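Continuing the series of single-chain predictions for the mutant panel. This is the parent chain; the variants come on the following pages.
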Amino acid sequence: MFDGSVMSIRTPKVKIAISIEKPLVDEIEAIAEEMKVSRSRVFSLAARGFVERQKSRKLLEAINAAYDDLPETDEEKTTRLAMRSKFRRLRLLSARERSRSDKVW
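Parent structure:
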């Protein structure tokens, strides 16, 4: 599973300044301590996950838009809805697995 570690070794880093609510920062610090990583690493992992989810969402929208123009039989509609449901379950499962593997770091 890709966790971003190879990318962080070879990619130059950029410092940024952001404002975040104190309670969220406290949670992030607790997670970083539990994972034995820096806060920056926690933010990097979170941002990477967000970017990947956005890419997946855009791809799914493009695929759905491409198929929207085609007439659909009842069987095709049932299959499409079942596949969409399965895709969502797989994404949730994948997110849970990533969350568990992030705790290892």
